[in-house]
Design a protein that fits this description.
Layout: E1 3-5, H1 12-20, E2 24-28, E3 31-34, H2 39-45, H3 47-54, E4 59-60, H4 62-67, E5 75-80, E6 84-88, E7 91-97, E8 104-111, E9 114-121, H5 123-129, H6 136-139, H7 143-157, H8 160-173, H9 177-189, E10 203-209, E11 212-219, E12 224-228, H10 247-250, H11 256-262, H12 267-273, E13 276-277, E14 281-284, E15 297-298, E16 306-307, E17 310-311, E18 314-315, H13 327-332, E19 350-354, E20 359-362, E21 370-373, H14 383-396, E22 404-407, E23 416-420, E24 425-426, E25 433-438, H15 439-442, H16 455-462, H17 469-485, E26 497-502, E27 511-514, H18 547-557, H19 561-579, H20 592-612, H21 616-619
Parallel strand pairs: 5-7, 15-24, 18-20
Antiparallel strand pairs: 1-3, 2-3, 4-5, 6-7, 8-9, 10-11, 10-14, 11-12, 13-14, 16-17, 19-20, 19-21, 21-23, 22-23, 25-26, 26-27
Length: 626
């Protein structure tokens, strides 16, 4: 280790002892370097880390905010409380006084000690810093850097005029009027296209779809860049906001339980450690890695090993194991390898592969064809059973639903649910290209905003995308009715998606249609969720919905009242009829808890269907506003 920082990489006593012994040389208080090493190279290679250690409240500015490193002549520019300079051999840390209202963002710096997150001037502020008067910070910004900064701002804001207005807003806030004038003149003259260097924390990842490269995903330590590859074929990944991870890529990343298992600090780390994702997406560093990863192709269907809702094949996935080890810990082990496909969604899930002899195995180095959903904990042990019931009800309501089955699990665990993927090729002769895009991605929203949408907003996003918008608007309406009738309080933007399909050699998607039903659950039957509301509002409401609310929704999204009325009657009738006969597989119904949960779901669905079907007796029953 060439650099030693007291309190971070070495304690004060040991540092003093090693310095006394001639092993270390002290640069400044708390900073040491190996006596026999290349001190100059070590200092410059860890310049940002040293500056952050000495001045933790300062931030990178000027040229150093663009380079995320010292300038070639050894100066590192920062801004903080006061003007001061610190020289460490060939490194000079130049600090000026920060403005009253700085605009900063977090950058990631990589050196031999690992990665470091530090504050740096935002693109707007660093551009203004380049035009400060009588400022060493400004003089360090070269013409090429200014041109690149200007190009970045124009790309973000759309036009030179809009970029100048955005820069002026920050200039006025800090009373940097002359800087604002200089920045405006430069922006309106020529934006430029020069490139900036990257640091050791930079990422350059290849994104492929069905094995075909789509482009490169680049992170320079400060922000994301999507560089699409010139190709003939449908566009799948689009960069809607410069500097942000494309929404489609973000929608693939782990969340919830899996995110906790993987201990990934941010999206950079998630993408660097994973390779295989849903929608037939692979993200790797080198093109040679593509050939080593299996293609996700369905060769053995779940229907071949399905009998009355029960999986008749052999479960060969993780088991609970020793009594002191939880099933979740055992399951998490399969995600330790980068080859294991990553899944989004907060529920515990595992990627599986169904082999020709009926064995359901982890899809580590096998095609990812099925999704395993084990039982939850803390009152959610019956979640797979409830989801199976809801999928069966959805099938009866007329929706396209993937095959699903309940699995008798080992070690006395509650039944799990296995669901067949519908976004992959079916057999070796299938040359279609498929991708599923959820509505967070379609509406360009982060996963954290999955509960912030409305059914009306979904319709606006769906209409220009679908190849049959009339049919898909009808499906959206029916899905909303279905969610209310089964009391699904988790039908959020990530649990609704469009399935995109392109035939071989097609230049655009052949079909873009509403995806089959998935992740449908009656949430109100679980502990603490008795008053659960709809995840997405419609007609401004998420609870106590009436037939009139849905008719108002229909008019808003372009359905006729007659079609809406017919859909409501049809779905309510079909659900009521199926609920009266729907039963669990015999093995799954053995526990009393499973039978109780089944009865709760059926009763709740029956009550709501009766109300919507216009049953006068049910209208006056306590179940009306469940």
């Amino acid at each position: 280790m060439a650099i030693h920082l007291v309190g971070e990489t070495i304690d004060a006593k040991r540092a003093h002892q090693r310095a006394q012994a001639g092993e270390l040389a002290q640069l400044v208080r708390g900073v040491y370097v190996d006596h026999d090493g290349d001190a100059e190279a070590s200092i410059l290679g860890h310049a940002v880390r040293i500056a952050h250690y000495l001045y933790p409240n300062a931030y990178l500015s000027s040229a150093s905010a663009a380079l995320l490193a010292p300038t070639p002549d050894g100066r590192l520019f920062i801004s903080g409380r006061r003007n001061q300079r610190t020289r460490l051999r060939t490194l000079e840390i130049v600090q000026n006084q920060a403005p009253a209202h700085p605009s900063t963002a977090i950058a990631v710096i990589g050196d031999d000690l690992g990665e470091l997150r530090v504050a740096a001037s935002s693109p707007r502020q660093r551009f203004l810093e380049a035009f400060r008067l009588r400022s060493e910070h400004a003089s360090a910004v070269t013409v090429e850097m200014r041109a690149q900064m200007a190009a970045r701002l124009v790309e973000e804001h759309g036009t030179s005029r809009a970029a100048a207005d955005a820069v002026w807003a920050l200039a006025r806030e800090n009373e940097w009027y002359r800087e604002g004038e200089g920045a405006e003149r430069f922006l309106l003259a020529q934006p430029g296209t020069a490139k900036v260097p990257v640091n050791k924390a930079a990422l350059d990842l290849l994104v492929a779809w069905h094995g075909e490269p789509l482009g490169r995903l680049i992170h320079d330590g400060f922000e994301w860049r999507w560089k699409a590859q010139r190709r003939v074929g449908p566009a799948l990944v689009r960069e809607t906001t410069p500097g942000k991870l494309p929404a489609f890529i973000e929608s693939l990343l782990p969340e919830g339980w899996l995110a906790q298992v993987l201990h990934e600090r941010d999206e950079r780390e998630a993408l660097r450690r994973g390779r295989r994702y849903m929608s037939n997406i692979v993200i790797v560093e080198d093109r040679d890695e593509l050939a080593a990863l299996p293609a996700d192709v369905l060769t053995t269907t779940l229907a071949s090993y399905l009998n009355a809702g029960r999986f008749t094949g052999a479960y060969a996935g993780p088991a609970r194991g020793e009594i002191e080890e939880t099933f979740e810990q055992n399951l998490a082990r399969i995600f330790a390898r980068a080859e294991t496909p990553r899944l989004s969604g907060v529920q515990i899930k595992a990627p599986m592969s169904l082999t020709s002899d009926g064995a359901l195995v982890p899809a580590i180095d096998q095609p990812f064809t099925h999704i395993l959903k084990p039982a939850g904990t803390a009152g959610f042990e019956m979640l797979p059973i409830v989801e199976w019931l809801c999928l069966e009800l959805g099938r009866a309501a007329g929706f396209e639903v993937p095959d699903a089955a309940l699995i008798e699990m080992p070690d006395g665990m509650s039944p799990a649910l296995v669901v067949e993927r519908f976004d992959i090729r079916r057999g070796p002769q299938d040359d279609r290209r498929l991708a599923m895009e959820d509505f967070c991605s379609i509406l360009d929203l982060p996963a954290s905003a999955k509960y912030d949408g409305t059914i009306e907003r979904m319709a606006r996003g769906l209409r220009p995308l679908s190849t049959d918008p009339t049919a898909d608007i009808d499906t959206l309406f029916r899905r909303a009715v279905f969610a209310w009738l089964i009391a699904d309080g988790d039908m959020h933007l990530k649990n609704l998606a469009m399935l995109k399909t392109a035939e071989a050699e097609a230049k655009a998607f052949t079909t873009v249609r509403f995806a089959p039903l998935y992740d449908a659950v009656t949430t109100r039957v679980f502990p603490g969720l008795g008053g659960d509301r709809m995840a997405l509002k419609l007609n401004g409401k998420d609870d106590r919905l009436t037939r009139q609310d849905f008719l108002t929704l229909a008019r808003t999204i372009g359905l006729t009242v007659g079609d809406a009325e017919a859909a409501i009657v049809e779905i309510a009738g079909r659900l009521a009829e199926r609920a009266a006969t729907l039963s669990l597989p015999a093995f799954a119904a053995e526990p009393e808890a499973a039978r109780t949960m089944h009865d709760k779901v059926i009763a709740l669905v029956g009550d709501r269907c009766a109300v919507f079907a216009g049953n006068a007796e049910a209208t006056n029953s306590p179940g009306k506003n469940k």
